Amino acid sequence: MDRPEDLELWRGLAKPLLSVVIPVLNESASLPATLAALGLERFGGTVEVIVVDGGSHDDSAALAAAAGCRVLVCRPSGRGRQMNLGAAAARGRYLLFLHADTRIPDNAFIKICRSLARPGVALGAFSLALDEPGVRFRLLEKLVHWRSRFWGLPYGDQGFFVRAETFAGVGGFWSEGLLEDVDFLRRIKPTGRLVLLPEKILTSARRWRRNGFWRVTLVNQMILLGYWLGVPPHVLFRFYYGGVSGGD
Question: Which domain holds residue 229?
Answer without folding.
Answer: 208-248
